[in-house]
Amino acid sequence: MNNNIVAVYPGSFDPPTKGHLDIISRASKIFPKVIVAITENYNKHHMFNLQERVDMMKESVSNIKNVEVDSFSGLLADYLVKIESFFVIRGLRALSDFEYEFQMALMNRTLNQKIETIFLMPDQIYTFLSSSMIKEIAGLGGDFKNLVPEPVYKRFKIKNNL
Ligand code: COA
Question: Is residue 20 annotated as a catalytic residue, yes or no?
Answer without folding.
Answer: yes
